[in-house]
């Protein structure tokens, strides 16, 4: 038992330390280091002033994760973009859980006839690809008509869309959990004794629902990170997208545009450097490794929370079954009236 709790707490601690360390380093870089940072160098010279390398530079002591074509260290770019990638995923997860809790509770209070219709509508979201749906809704603001929107709109609008697309499914999940909790014997007994909704939620529902909402929050952080990576490949950068005119086609004369991340968020680093994956693989491996590490840290936290919660539920269920089960013997019966023959 002690090993079980220790291993789960260790996974939670490791995941939290990684996430908190990244966010702390990103904030320190933003407000302390970046102010005094020297401009990047595209050329490297030795002690004899001889040219030894041209950007992008491969991984080395000076550039732990290599550099981009402008000589910017990928290690510093990943640290800088962590506050946008992880920070926005935390905001999206919190918004999803908050909105789904309110929606789920409202659905729970509504008549069952209305809930049946809502079930039919929400089932469609189970089979709708979230990435495609968000791309269709976000692309007009971030890509097609990006010139008519400011940076604040380009950041806030995708966040709102990412919150709303998951609200129906999560609201149904919360409603189903509330239905299960309110069917328990002690809740029914409390209602028969005159308890109102506030008392029922505070005393009976909240202790069971809060751990599940916490687990849902952690899981939604991981889901948001995965969607960020998918949208990045479609040139949708959550931290803001900047479209630049790079060149003109020699044959047709049509302009050639490229999309750049305005905040160094990790999905943008993957997409804008994807063409350099073969000649300079570190330009893709660095942000991909950062994404994988963050998702692994979030999943370790979710697993650490899920394990003890499921163990507690199974232990409680077993205890209740043992307490309610009793053998049937002859002493349990009492003769009310004896019929004489």
Which ranges are low-confidence, i.e. pLDDT below 50, for 5 or more consecutive residues?
316-321
Characterize the main sheet: 2 strands, antiparallel
Question: CATH homologous superfamily name of the largest domain?
Answer: MetI-like
Number of strands: 4
The helix/strand series, from N terminus to C terminus, equals: HEEHHHHHHHEEHH
Q: How far is it from the N-terminal to the C-terminal residue, by CA?
A: 62 Å
Topology (elements, then pairings):
Elements: H1 2-33, E1 43-45, E2 51-54, H2 74-109, H3 112-126, H4 130-144, H5 151-164, H6 167-182, H7 185-192, H8 197-233, E3 241-248, E4 255-261, H9 266-272, H10 282-324
Antiparallel strand pairs: 1-2, 3-4
Helix pairs in contact: 1-2, 1-10, 2-5, 2-6, 2-8, 2-10, 4-5, 6-8, 8-9, 8-10, 9-10
Describe the protein.
With 341 residues, the chain is mainly alpha-helical. It folds into two domains: 277 residues, Orthogonal Bundle (MetI-like fold); 33 residues, no CATH class. Helix content is 65%, strand content 6%. It is built from ten helices and four strands. Helix 1 crosses helix 2, helix 2 runs antiparallel to helix 8 and helix 8 packs parallel to helix 9. The longest helix has 43 residues. It is elongated and about 105 Å long. The protein starts with a helix and ends in a 17-residue tail after the last helix. About 2% of the residues have low confidence. Keywords: Membrane, Transmembrane, Transmembrane helix, Transport.
């Amino acid at each position: 038992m002690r090993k079980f709790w220790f291993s789960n707490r260790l996974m939670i601690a490791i995941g939290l330390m990684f996430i908190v360390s990244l966010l702390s380093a990103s904030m320190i870089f933003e407000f302390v280091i970046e102010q005094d940072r020297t401009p990047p160098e595209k050329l490297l010279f030795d002690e004899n002033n001889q040219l030894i390398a041209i950007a992008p530079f491969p991984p080395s002591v000076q550039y732990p994760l290599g550099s981009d074509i402008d000589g910017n260290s990928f290690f510093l770019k990943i640290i800088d973009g962590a506050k946008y990638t992880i920070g926005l995923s935390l905001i999206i997860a919190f918004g999803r859980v908050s909105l789904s809790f309110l929606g789920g509770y409202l659905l729970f209070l509504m008549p069952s006839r209305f809930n049946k219709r809502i079930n039919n509508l929400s089932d469609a979201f189970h089979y709708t690809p979230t990435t495609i749906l968000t791309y269709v809704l976000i692309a007009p603001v971030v890509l097609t008509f990006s010139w008519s929107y400011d940076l604040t709109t380009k950041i806030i609008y995708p966040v709102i869309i990412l919150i709303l697309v998951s609200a129906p499914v999560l609201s149904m999940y919360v409603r189903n959990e509330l239905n299960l909790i309110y069917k328990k014997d002690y809740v029914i007994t409390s209602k028969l004794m005159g308890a109102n909704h506030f008392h029922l939620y505070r005393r009976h529902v909240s202790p069971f629902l809060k751990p599940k909402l916490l687990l849902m929050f952690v899981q939604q952080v991981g889901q948001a990170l995965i969607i960020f990576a998918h949208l990045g490949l479609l040139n949708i950068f959550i931290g803001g997208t900047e479209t630049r005119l790079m060149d003109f086609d020699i044959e047709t004369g049509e302009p050639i545009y490229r999309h750049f991340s305005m905040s160094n968020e990790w999905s943008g680093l993957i997409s804008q450097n994807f063409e350099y994956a073969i000649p300079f693989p570190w330009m893709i491996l660095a942000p991909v490794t950062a994404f994988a590490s963050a998702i692994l840290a979030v999943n370790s936290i979710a697993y650490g929370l899920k394990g003890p919660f499921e163990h507690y539920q199974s232990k409680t269920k077993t205890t209740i079954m043992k307490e309610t089960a009793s053998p049937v013997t002859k002493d349990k019966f009492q003769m009310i009236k004896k019929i004489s023959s």
